[in-house]
Amino acid sequence: MALPDYLIKKAPKSQSINKIRALLGDPAIHTVCESAKCPNIGECFSKNTLTFMILGKVCTRSCAFCGVGKGAPQPVDPDEPEKIREAVLKLGLDYVVVTSVTRDDLPDFGAEQFARVITALSGKKVEVLIPDFQGDEAALQKVIDASPLVINHNVETIPSLYRSIRPQAVFERSLELLLRVKKSGICAKSGFMVGLGEEDEDVFNLILRLNKTGLDMVTIGQYLPPSRLHPKPKRFVAPEKFMEYKVYGESLGIKKVEAGPFVRSSFHAEETWKKLSD
Predict the structure, then answer these.
(1) Which of 50, 131, 158, 260 could pair with 202 as two cysteines, CB 3.0-4.6 Å apart?
(2) How many angstroms separate the CA atoms of 273 and 239, rounded?
(3) Is 33 annotated as a binding residue?
(4) 266 is in an annotated binding site
(5) If you count DSSP H runs as helices and E runs as strands, how many of each does the chain have, helices first?
(6) Residue 66 marked as a ligand binder
(7) In sequence order, what are the beta bridge partners of 95?
């Protein structure tokens, strides 16, 4: 299936990537931009923005859409929070986005490391994109108690596709997490992809279900396979259709819906939050 013109993006300039790598100065600091082969990496890195990925670069889950490496996870680095703090200072960031691989092998699923990173970034605006922690309430509470500005958790796709696309996750568990975040008073955010096998009616139904959690922000983007080994898109959604999703979500009362072919959960995260807070 040939890419439509609106999905053709210039290859990232190597100097932008090399510049960020030089500023970070530590190969142990990972970014989801690189690990997930994000198509926006060139634009983000050229503006000194990125999404930190903690708890290593190997995920314990096998989601079909994801480009992050899978297999035996690495030991948790106790110095990682301080390394992230130093990198943030070097980059001059005020708004910091932090995600992680999923660590089902850890007793608290990595929640304590999230909390330590948030604490290390005291004085910064911190948005975290967290896994589901297998529904563990105590693990989620650790992150909530660290008081990030935004807690994001992506549902990724419609419920009927979980078995093939997100087999180790549970849709209702993700909705419950978002409900708990919203009840805590912290800004709640979620996102998903289109092009994995859903129809427009499925998308509108998913937006409706997300809205019932009371969340504040939703991001919707086009699925693009990170390699030839990943599933091919079932369809390409036109920009005009993304606008319909956005209008529908905001008509329900969701404060901010970002929808477009290249929208990703962390793409322009600071700008989206500013729109929400204006």
Answers:
(1) 158
(2) 22
(3) yes
(4) yes
(5) 11, 10
(6) yes
(7) 125
40 contacts 264 by C-beta, under 8 angstroms: yes
Q: How many CA atoms lie within 13 A of 186 on its CB side?
A: 25
The pTM score is 0.93
How many whole angstroms separate alpha carbon 30 and alpha carbon 15? 18
Q: Give the class (CATH, top level) of 10-277.
A: alpha beta
- C-alpha span between 194 and 37 (Å, rounded): 18
**Which residues sit opposite 219 in a β-bridge?**
191, 258
Domain ranges in the chain are: 10-277
- Known binding residue 187? Answer is no
* Residue showing tokens 């990232």: 12
Residue 38 assigned as binding residue? yes
What's the start-to-end Cα distance of the chain, in Å?
41
- CA–CA separation, 262 vs 177, rounded Å? 26
Pairing of strands 69-70, 95-100: unpaired
Task: List, for residues 176-212, the tens digit of each pLDDT value.
Answer: 999 999 999 999 999 999 999 999 999 999 999 999 9
